[in-house]
Amino acid sequence: MLLKVGELSKRCGLTVRTLHHYDAIGLLKPSARSDAGYRLYNRNDIARLHQIQALRRFGLSLADIGIVLANPGSHLAAIVDSQIQMLERQISQSAALRDRLVHLQTQLQRGEEPELADWLTTLEMMTMYDKYFTKEEQQRIRLFRGVENSTADEWAALVQSVEEAMEMKIPPYSPGAQNLAKRWITMVLRDTHGDARLLAKLNAMHDSEPAVQAQTGVTPKVIRFIQEAFAETKFAIYQKYLSPDEFRFLRENYLKRTHEYPALIAAIRQHMEDGTPPDDPRILPLALHWLELFRSYAGDNPETHAKIREANAREPELLLGSFIDQHLLGYIKEAMFNLQPH
Length: 342
Fold this sequence. Notes:
Elements (H helix, E strand, L loop, with lengths): L2 E2 H8 L3 H9 L7 E2 L5 E3 L1 H15 L4 H9 L5 H34 L6 H10 L9 H6 L8 H19 L7 H18 L3 H13 L1 H7 L3 H19 L5 H10 L7 H14 L9 H15 L3 H13 L11 H12 L5
Antiparallel strand pairs: 1-3, 2-3
Helix pairs in contact: 3-5, 5-6, 8-9, 9-12, 10-14, 14-15
């Protein structure tokens, strides 16, 4: 059975562009071509693709994978065996944690006080997610729920696609990079239920925990690629509303402080949910921070501010993925009004 590149793409979860790139660099060349010139992959090609993907999961670059596969001593059975060993280690770690918790539970049920070493050992094995999220929040985030195994796989596949795009030096303004960014943002919105408070905690965890970055592959470089590609989708819209000089300033400064927005939006959203009125003194520093961030990429010209606000009001796509809605904007607008002299 021979598969065309499009069919193989659908079956293996890689993009057609990635498979074309593998062909171009000699990593995975199809064994045949159709009369029309289409790439055709057979069973041996797919076995080689399995090796490539397995080695990617072990953190090897495409160049290193090429070297490994060029070695006649590399066999698919050995790579599959390595995968099995990695999964067995993960299962063993989970089983060890379960045994430790059962041991503590037994001691507590007997009325015994566990030794300090027992508590420390258990704490070391427990997930660090508890440091950042309540149990209720962990239930809300799809990625943390054990029943959502497909979610973790979906994120792993997307992270891998982004890493491959970075390795191929695909520019942020390209359609491929922008599509990856839109998929990323869509999944973030889905898995956080569009709640900026959960996003802010996720960001804090990834910024502070190298182990989480290593586990998920969501490194600062990956995040930066997504931010730059997603910003390009906004620039194409803003350019229609701004003068060349205004647009140049916005483009140069747009991403410099966007990392401050999630925590700020989360704080504002919490006040809104608590019923805090916009003229409450606690909102004043948040409104000032909002205005500061806006001016960081909009400049100080009120005419430019008006153009950007018009764009935001008329172009729904500009708010897509921002965790900002018209209700929140209205709330901030009222808070801003209270900053002005009356």
